[in-house]
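Two proteins follow. First one:
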Amino acid sequence: MVEVIGLARDAKGSSLFDPPPLQLYVPLRQNYMSEMTLHLRTSGEPEQMIAAVRESIHEIDRSLPVDEVRALSQQFDNALATQRLSATLISGFGLLALALAMIGLYGVISYTVAEGTREIGIRMALGAQIGDVLKQVIGQGMKLALAGVAIGLVAALALTRLLKGMLFGVSATDPLTFVSIVLLLMGIAMLACYFPSRRATKVDPTVALRYE
């Protein structure tokens, strides 16, 4: 016969990602175990209380071993170590892919400007303004960027199921994250298009007309 004297909120077990297990709290005298976990809440820095906690326990019994004393923040860090390593690796590959995309976009736009030098010269000779040339070149690059971002968003949404097990405290389809990434990619694409377009505006129409 067990008498229930209260209910406690759900608590995570050994994993932050598994559902809270069913638990029953009983007095130590009724269910003795050779080892136990003691949780303490402090008003100051937890690390500064470790020595005092050890001393208080040893005042009760010098033979009691006290080990694995750590702050709850450190316990969280240990529990999330694998996920953080995975996130770091994925972030590194993501940054590498972003750099390659930026370089590739810059190369495509530069090649487009080089191939269209004669056309740009004719336009400027006929009265096209610098703003018109900038709009044309940047527009070509941004169309490519928009197409790439759209494909990337579809692929990212399709792969969110694989990421759910690696995330804690954030949704795999977090709108703020997706919006931030889209804005970042479009900003980088704009920079990658800017420099070739600036070079296009400096084309001398007389030289461009002789360009082959």
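Second one, unrelated to the first:
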Amino acid sequence: MRAQSEQLVRASQTPVADLPLATQLVQRLCFSGEITAARACLDRFESEAALSADVLVVQAHLRWNLGEFERALALLERALNAGVDEPGEHHFYAMLLQVSGDTERAGQVLDMCLRRWPGFGSAAVSLSNLRKQTPATQHLDFLRRQLERFPVDSVNPEARFVRAEFTAALFKELDDLGQYEAAWQALAHSNALMRELNPYDAAGETAIAEALIDASQHSGKAGATRGQRLDGPTPIFIVGMPRSGTTLLDRMLSNHSQVISAGEINDALRQLHWVTDVVPAGVPGMLEAIRRSRRIDFAELGARYLEQTQWRAHGRSYYIDKLPGNVQIVPFIRRALPHARILHMVREPMDVCFSNFKAMFGNVSAYSYDLRSLAHYYGLYVRLVNHWHNTLPGAMLDVSYAELVTDPEASLRRVLDHCGLAIEQNCLHPERNSAPVATPSSVQVREGIHTRAIGQWQHYATQLEPLKVMLEGLRH
């Protein structure tokens, strides 16, 4: 992988006029962890005088992949003005508007999509999630009519996926309206379809957790010393279970004058694969990278990470890498970047698990579509976190979601003190943060701090009793 990566970087330094070749080059650079080279290549390609609408669309998607949402939005608007008229690109436009905080225009675009392409499941899910639905804004009749177009017994995977999308949208709106019995039926049906389409690999996830624990005790050459500060802006990692409140903490912390959010970037894992010289390839690739990590130079890993990410700070002293899944590689981050801060969001087990269960993640996060799989995945997460705390005391600071929303000032003072920052009042008002945010909770975190998400699972206490029993079993 390393040799191929170096070849790609050299290739990127030569002007490429062919669109498919340039696109492939940028994609492969990103996949290889060469983010700075990918951006430079894309910058050169975008400097061309005449760009077709199709080229603008490709560039917008590549900028989205890099987390440069404002540039992606500008490029896509140019493409739409130039005549692009596909449902997927209009949906992409709505998502970029939502990420940028313009939910009103995003809703208008999604309404248009569903008028023209009523069977477009992704747009239906996005529209339902755009706001808390009320009797005046709900789309229940429309969603039910569309579900009639996709038979329950269809064997077509694509049709089953679209049915799952519409049923997930139906759940969201019924839940918003307090119709909990009907909402559960919709959620159970949607998740059953998604479970068939995306089976959970319990054995693979267990193998990864065990390999991580084993490798953390036999690591390679360490990076800089804990007290040493390296040149340039400092990363702050926010980790935890998905849906644990990581986005809220990110929005509060990045409203500080010295901090900016880089969003959910995958650079830590990309650079681990680069340093171990292992191509990312599912469970086997991850296991091999973990196995080889015993012999790597963690100083090189840290240097690679900083080289590929510090541009994201845009002049600030700190930048946030908010990828919940990085909780798996805390020991690697700590050894590679001892000066970085790691914040671990902790949320009540039933709350965080239900929040995952009700989210429509698409064809990823297979653990989230089944209660038994969810309990298993959560159990592995707890096992890893407990091991990191026991073997690496002080490596990460636990931040309670409940405390963050019930006593935000005291909780945030502790976080900022851990990061070496003084509190600023803007941090207590995430709704004032105008920066783009591209997570499933992007709408909620543009509101003020609230406690509504605490205990939401209790609306479905009877149906979730098996999950509750399994989670309680983890404590014994």
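SUMMARY FIELD: The chain has two domains: 118-197, 204-473. The first strand starts at residue 234 and ends at 240.
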